[in-house]
UniProtKB/TrEMBL annotation:
Keywords: DNA-binding. Residues 30-49 bind DNA. The keyword DNA-binding applies. The keyword Ribonucleoprotein does not apply. GO terms for molecular function: DNA binding. This is AcrR family transcriptional regulator. Residues 7-67 form the HTH tetR-type domain.
Length: 227
């Protein structure tokens, strides 16, 4: 029986790989280029990751974790104002130089995945979960399922565009303004779907339970999660 793989060593390698990728693309990654850059033998990388597909998969899952993990409980009870603040704060934390680097790699991974023979759909899955969170929340306020699904898809697709614009332009202040404007528009649309400001007043103060499935998935799928 071979000796078990060292979990801390693999995590250390992922840290070094992400640092190496600051000025490179995922598509350029090979065991040889990484071995040369990190000062290790190709055997070490093969031992820890198996093959190139598994290596890229682990890199992407580590990126997903860093971009998505919130540190919040999986279950929350919030009113609309708290939900709004939660979303704005969570997205605002992405608009840093470190996160821009990770978001760039995440976008590249999604583009490469779209033409892969064995697509994983990582980013699409997270997008779906975030949209489902919005749908779940506004439906509990009294918005119809049809309207809630349209609002959820619209908001998450807008956020996807804001994140991509930040990757391309790096303007964090503009990104935060756009997120705030999107949340303001969502509030106006929710209030309208509930029948106007007076009719919606009680619903907007209602505390409802929501499940943060996306961060939970990011934790579960992270390479070598803490045990």
């Amino acid at each position: 029986m071979g000796r078990p793989k060292a979990l801390d060593r693999k995590q250390q390698l992922l840290e070094e790989i992400l640092e190496y990728l600051r000025t490179r693309t995922l598509s350029s990654v090979t065991f040889r280029t990484l071995a040369d850059a990190l000062g290790v033998s190709s055997y070490v990388l093969v031992y820890q990751f198996g093959n190139r597909e598994a290596l890229i998969g682990d890199i992407v899952r580590e990126i997903d974790y860093r971009v998505t993990y919130s540190g919040l409980p999986n279950e929350l009870e919030v009113d609309y104002a708290e939900f709004e603040a939660l979303v704005e704060r969570g997205l605002g934390e992405l608009f840093t130089a470190e996160s821009r680097h990770l978001l760039r790699l995440q976008v590249e991974a999604a583009v490469l995945d779209a033409v892969s023979e064995n697509p994983k759909g990582n980013l699409a899955q997270f997008q779906h979960l975030w949209s489902a969170l919005v749908v779940e929340f506004v439906m509990q306020l009294g918005v119809s399922k049809e309207d809630a699904e349209a609002l959820g898809a619209g908001l998450i697709n807008t956020f996807g565009g804001i994140r991509l614009d930040y990757v391309l332009n790096g303007n964090d202040a503009e990104a935060r303004r756009n997120v705030a404007a999107s949340m303001k528009l969502l509030r106006e649309l929710v209030v309208a779907r509930l029948g106007g400001p007076e009719a919606a007043e009680d619903a907007m103060k209602k505390r409802v339970s929501v499940t943060l499935d996306a961060p939970a998935l990011a934790v579960a799928q992270r390479p070598n999660p803490a045990r």
